[in-house]
Amino acid sequence: MGIFIMKEGKAKDKKADKKGDKKPRKDNNKEMIKEYTVNLHKRLFKMQFKKRGKRAIRELKKFAQTQMWVKDVRIDSELNHFIWKNGIRDVPNKVRIRVSKKKNQDEDAKEPFFCLVQHLDVEDFSGLRTETPKQQ
User: Core-most of 8, 102, 112, 133, by most CB within 10 Å?
Assistant: First the structure.
């Protein structure tokens, strides 16, 4: 059942082929910084108006968790102010953020790393890509 025949006539095992194709895992235990453009419009589509501001913050936290593999995500006050500046209903369609993964200095912390999400002020979103800025 686990063997199939190739066109050249060589038999190959499916299970062995699947095991050999694994990619090396990323090292998630290091500090890093990345810049992203997040499209909030598609994440808040068909969302009730009175829940958009809170949902936008929740979606940014969820985005940072998936990108940095960290459960502890902290939103900077400038980013919070940028999301809420037009009220609960008028959330910006796009936002440029810098996500920094840092070591947790607190001794009794549950997680070894935390993630800080900061706002980057840009005039135009065209041509922006995900970047890893050079550290000083």
Answer: 102
